[in-house]
Amino acid sequence: MPVSQLGSWLATKPPIEEAQELINRARAAASYYRSRHDVSAHNEAVEIQTRAERYVGARLKEMPKATGGQPYQTNSTTDIMSVVEKPPTLKELGITDKQSSRFQQLAEIPTPIFEETIQELKREPETVLTKAAIFTVIAQKQQRMGATVYSSESNEWYTPAWITALAKEAM
Question: Residues 23-59: pLDDT tens digits?
Fold first, then answer.
């Protein structure tokens, strides 16, 4: 799916499972194009993957959380009905905890900053687009905007999401 059609497809609010399939295909395409040294095709695949991950992160944030439990031990019919209505778990959606966290961090990035970053990175034709590069540029923009405040007057320190995302990606 070309990037030009991705926005209209995501606007239809497809199921998370379909978006996850798109992420997997885009990741495979990015890997293939990178091995072929096709930077522009690789970058398009990474952009599709990142936008789909951002979409999934937004959907996960608004989705009710699965409560767990042992539904097979219920006795009443009302309990059985509530089991049917329970939201799917991350495992049922095919998403790991690490992916869920990363996708939700992408969803937290304000849209103007995200779009500006993608366009900025795409302007340089020889730049290989990676999620680490996206997070780094976004972090620099947020620091310039004063989004992260460090204070020597407090014992509490905030580790920005982009730093934890880069650390997780490096692991």
Answer: 888 889 988 988 898 888 888 888 888 889 999 999 9
Residue 61: Cβ within 10 Å count: 12
Q: Which two tokens stand for residue 151?
A: 């204070």
Radius of gyration of the chain (CA): 19
Q: Report the alpha-carbon distance of residue 24 to residue 32 in Å, rounded.
A: 12
Q: How far is it, in rounded angstroms, from Cα 71 to Cα 140?
A: 47
Q: How many angstroms separate the CA atoms of 67 and 87, rounded? A: 8
Nearest CA to 17 out of 64, 66, 65, 55 is that of 55
CA–CA dist 81, 35 (Å, integer): 50
* Residues contacting 97, CB < 8 A, separation 6+: 90
